[in-house]
Write the structure tokens for this entry.
Amino acid sequence: MKIVCLSIIFFLFSLAVGAQNLSLDLYVGTSNYRGDLQDQAFLFSQSHLGGGVGLTYRFNDHIYARTSLILGKISGNDNSGSNKNRNLNFTSGITEGNLEVLYLGTPLLVHSFSPYFFVGISVYHFNPYTHDTLANKYYLKPLSTEGEGFLDGVKNYNLTQIGIPFGGGVKLSLSENIDVGVEIGLRKIFTDYLDDVSTNYVDESLLLSNRGAKAVELAYRGDELKGGDLQYPSSGQKRGSPKAKDMYYFTLVSLSYRFGTLNFSKSHSQWSCPKNVL
């Protein structure tokens, strides 16, 4: 994580040297999650508002680099999934800082429209929580609902981790200084605890003695359903699916303001720029 932070600092220093190729970016859109509590590719009812701010540096007609801070929220609920009897749910804020490389298919300053792809590295923070039947809020990590931290072989998960953002979109140049874009960015992550659900149920008495009654209450919530199973599942019974890691993603609209002045003329739906500027 230190390497990522140092890389971002070095990138920002490089931007100051060549400000004429620098753009300020604003983002707004939605954030989503896919995992044990939401197994569909996209569910609009569980989308949340997301957005952020960033800087982009243009190296040449095709290669750009950018860094951004993105904020969002994700959630999942068994009432919309394939395991309704488990009756679990979670919500978490997402705070992400990233450093990415973009490849534009066509020069944006020559053609006013261009598709692009990107990949990079990110540091993100999450903290899943839920509410009990009395609407009291509880963060789930301290409850160790699957025995994290006290069960042999089950380690605590970190709330701040590294991910790999990747995706694509399209950019449209409105003027010599203003671009707009739309993109979908997926996040490859290396934890299955984004939703606090991953492996198996821990023994009820063991969970009770180590984390208390609230942990038992929120580890299995099928007994809250009308006609649900009132019995806590036996130790080792499947609670999640550890083979398929969780993920989150953003669908964002961007507005970019390019610093400096680029002289151009529009002819046959193309931008042309003096060579000494580029």
